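If you are new to this repository, start here. Below is one unmodified record pulled from the training split, so you can see the exact layout before writing a loader.
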Amino acid sequence: MRYVFLGSPEFATKVLDQLINAGIPPVALVCNPDRPAGRKKILTPPATKKLIQDRGLDIKIFQPENKQELTALSPTLTAMANFGIVAAYGLIIPREFIESFKQGIIGVHPSLLPKYRGASPIRSAILAGEERTGVSLFMLDEKVDHGPILAQKDLYIDSQRYNELADELAVLSGNLLAEILTDFDEGKIEPVEQNHENATLTSKFTTEDAYIPWDDLKDAQGGDLVKAKDIFKKVRAFNPEPGAFTFIDNKRIKLLRVEIEESKLILKQIQKEGKKPEVI
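And here is the target side for that same chain:
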């Protein structure tokens, strides 16, 4: 089994880590270029590259700047591997690149497709109050999260914050890949077309989406259960970044952790502008 892994951030790293732990590492990693990070602008590798380096693995690493450079890598990568796996890579993958692999490319998406296609499936599921979500493995095509499904597994949503749920879904994705890759490589899985009529599409959120009006917060603390539930979802969906926030005396206050008790919203942890987080 020879495959190329395409992915860059922490979500992709946890997926990749599960595959490595299962004894099925990729022959190559394709990730974003190193970027300056932090106040000192130190050149920092993507999380997936750092994982490979920290574990001392003999895996070739490619870091194309754009779609054109990625496509130019096709002959090299397809000579090394029969298929690809992509998880939170960061670039739109051209059709020519997808079709260059003999067995195509498997997409990893943290929702139960066709629901919540697009850029923000995890936040969107939390904000919608979904009781369950999951992961989908599908065959990549030129449309967003559109290809036929190879496998899915669901996960219960309780009170997880975004980062916690993302970590759980990443690990679930890696484990599901490890379960199906041998059968996929041997041609034993028949992909199932998505029901496109049931598709929903998500888009990127902005900092403004995390804003909570002060009056809504007061109502929620006073016993307005509907507003309390909405704020509870928003705080979880936008944690840790950009962080749900309100303004008091023209100063931004981040709401880091809240709970609902007897129909009232209770603040558990906040962060005042320019200050460290504090437990209430």
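Two things worth knowing about this chain: Residues 60 and 195 are 38 Å apart (CA to CA). The longest helix spans residues 162-185.
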